[in-house]
Amino acid sequence: MATVVLMVLPGMRAPFQEASESKANQVKAVFLYNFTQFVVWPQHIFDNETSPFVIGVLGEDTFGPYLNEVIESEEVDGHPIVVRHYKSITAGIDQCQILFIDSSFPAARQAIESLKGKPVLTVSDSQNFMRHAGMLRFYIEGGKLRIEINQEASQRSGLEVSSKLLRIATLYKE
Amino acid sequence: MHDSIHDVDILLVEDNPDDAKLVIRALKKCNLGNKLIHLTDGEQALNFLFGKGEFSEREVEEDKPRVILLDLKMPKVDGLQVLKAIREDPRTRVIPVVIMTSSAEDRDIVNTYNSGVNAYVVKPVGFENFSKAVAELGMFWLLVNQTAK
Amino acid sequence: MVFRNLPIRKKIRWIIMLTSAAVLLFTFLSYLVYEVVTFRQTYVQQLYTLARIISTNCTAALAFDNPDDAAEVLGALKAEKHIVAAALYDKQGNLFSKYPQDYSLHTVPQDQVQFQEDHRFEESHLIIFEPVVQNNKTLGVFYLKSDMDAMYERISLYASIAAAVIAISFVVAYFLSNRLQRSISRPVHALTSTAKTVSEKKDYSVRTTKTGNDEIGYLTDAFNQMLSEIQTQNAQIQLFNQKLELTIEQRTHDLATANKELEAFSYSVSHDLRAPLRSINGYSGILMEDYGHLLDEEGIQALKSIMRNGMRMGQLIDDLLAFSRLGKQHVAKFNLNMTALAKAVYDDLKEQYGNKSEILINPLPEIKGDSSMLRQVMQNLISNALKYSMKRDKPVVEIGAYRENGGNVYYVKDNGVGFNMQYYDKLFGVFQRLHNVTDFEGTGVGLALVHRIITKHDGRIWAEGKENEGATFYFSLPVT
């Protein structure tokens, strides 16, 4: 277990400082990985057993090196995790299992539209994300990073969010 | 029977004639047996002393023997009874009585002294001793001893 | 109150009660041990289950850094009153959440946090570590601490039930044993009281009633039989005693008669036997004195033989009478100067034996005894010594004494003809002589007389001798 990548970083318990943007991004990277443990994807999404589990980042890459550090040599049900960066809505984004849409990306709504009915967990820290039928949203409350979930949206895409995750998240009603 | 009954020195009461003869012989040897009367049993002795029976004419008070030699074991009345009778009667009480007998039984000696005998002599078996003892006896009672009237 | 002195009924009661109490107590104790062991196992399992449920519910809180949620989950432990403390630690062992919220005392130091599933009992508390795992990923560890009050409550409940049951069974055992012990103690008591009657009143006619065919019944039978036998034997003994008394009375009477006859016999012996002897001697003497000159030498010798034997017979009669008289004679004991006695006896005798012996009289100790009897003893022994040594060239007679075994031993020793030890048995018998009358005159009564006197004094007489070398006669007399 010693080889397992740190998922809970030191200092996380400290009040979240807006000034330390990199710290917040670091936490976000960990959370992104942790979603792989609390969300169940349909069986058929992988072409074969060695197909990678893809975490996509759409728009500006705010994670820097953190995300790669988090997922390094990790896998989901035997599928190695890889990170892919997209600058625009391309055909490849529907190959992702998790797609993080940066708040600076202008066409978040279109991106979600294009993934409609596909088992891709859409995540963002944009304020209006839920209104565009996004599934998961990060937000800050009391200096801590919180999660908001649109359960109906994830269900429509065939994703099953663990009740444990639902417990700690804020539920968004359409 | 006895011609000279007066002036009697010795009265010998002895049932055994052999013993009596030995005594008389021994006394005569030293001239003491001249005035001796020999009676052969106790009854006779009492009659003689108290003037009864065959001796009824006798003057008892006047003619007392100076000593009585008395055998113990005799038929009819024995020596002890004779002695008691002598000592009970005031007429004869003062007469000296010497017991001459064969036995030295303690009870005989005690009984006769209790009844007031003056001497108790056991007759020796041996001839010489016997003669000697009788002679000494006669000598003492007739010549040495003083009797009451 | 010592147990062994208690009456049997109390003993039996105590035995029953203590045994049942001990059995119950032991049973309860074993159940208690079993209960404690199983309770602990069960409780550990229960607590593990609880810990797993909590830890499963805390995975998301840990994964998404949500202590509030964790606190909420842990807050559910309020329903479990035995849970003293709980805490959630993250992957690094840092405290993430705790229960109760204000519980500050018991947080585990970081280096003691365990990530393996484990439990331990510590100061009457059960502590459990349960790793928080999501999809094989360890996210942290859950710490749970419970008191063992539940177990103690159970034990105390158990103990009170046990105490109550033991107390009740004690009472039941008391009444049961009270009834049951009678079958043993009653017959024993009956036996005891019978035995008491027998030993106190000597009444052997009493019997115990038998109550059953057990050992006590057998004992009762044996006891009754024994009493019967004693009764029979007593009767026999009594009968025997009566017979014996009758016999003794008869014998005493016979003995008295025999004694009287013997007395009469010895009286006539002394009187009637001597009278003819006196005549024999007397008339032999007259014959010798008056008619001796008419006899030739042979006639004289014949007459002398008659006289000598007559004398001897007289001596025999005298000695025999003295011997038989001794039987009924009372021993009058006074302090006696034995030295003076020996000297006086010797002075009386020396003329008779020719005055030629050397006599040595050692100082003799005083003794309590009958003077005339002991004079006879000395007379016989000294005259014997003089007589049997007379034919020596230098006759020597020694008289002495020594102390032995708390008594005085006196002895008279001579260097005369002595005697053969082979004939020792005849030495002290009446009319027994070891020498010829022609050599040494005597009747054979002297030593028998001496023996009788010494025996009457509770003493002992014995002798040593050797033919032609002399003899020593000893007699011992007790000092007190």
Q: How would you describe this structure to a colleague?
A:
The complex is a heterotrimer of chains A (174), B (149) and C (480). Chain A is α/β, with parallel strands linked by helices and 174 residues long. Chain A has one domain: Rossmann fold, CATH 3.40.50. Chain A is 25% helix and 24% strand. An 8-stranded mixed sheet of chain A has the order 3-4-2-5-6-7-8-10. Chain B has 149 residues and is α/β, with parallel strands linked by helices. Chain B has one domain: Response regulator (Rossmann fold), CATH 3.40.50.2300. Chain B contains 5 helices and 5 strands. A 5-stranded parallel sheet of chain B has the order 2-1-3-4-5. Chain B starts with 9 loop residues before the first strand and ends in a 5-residue tail after the last helix. Chain C is rod-shaped. In chain C, 56% of the residues lie in helices and 17% in strands. With 480 residues, chain C is an alpha+beta fold. Chain C has 3 domains: 4-176, PAS domain (Beta-Lactamase, 2-Layer Sandwich), CATH 3.30.450; 196-328; 330-478, Heat Shock Protein 90 (2-Layer Sandwich). Chain C: It holds the Pfam family HisKA. Chain C: This is histidine kinase. Chain C: Its EC number is 2.7.13.3. Chain C: Its main location: membrane. Chain C: Residues 268-480 form the Histidine kinase domain.
How many beta-strand elements of chain B? 5
Q: SS-based structural class of chain B?
A: alpha/beta
Distance between the termini of chain B: 27 Å
Question: Can you tell me the CATH class of chain B?
Answer: Alpha Beta
User: What is the CA-atom radius of gyration of chain A, in angstroms?
Assistant: 15 Å
Count of discrete domains of chain A: 1
Question: Strands of the largest sheet of chain B, in order across it?
Answer: 2-1-3-4-5
Q: What overall geometry of chain B do the principal axes of the alpha carbons give?
A: globular
End-to-end separation of chain A in angstroms reads 41 Å
Overall pLDDT metric of chain B = 86
Integer average pLDDT of chain A: 83
Helical coverage of chain A, percent range: 10-25%
Question: Helix proportion of residues of chain B, in percent?
Answer: 25-40%
Query: How many whole angstroms does the radius of gyration of chain B measure?
Result: 14 Å
Instruction: Kindly identify the CATH topology of chain A.
Output: Rossmann fold
Structural class of chain A: alpha/beta
CATH class of chain A: Alpha Beta
Protein name (chain C): histidine kinase
Catalytic activity (chain C): ATP + protein L-histidine = ADP + protein N-phospho-L-histidine
Organism (chain C): Dawidia soli
EC number (chain C): 2.7.13.3
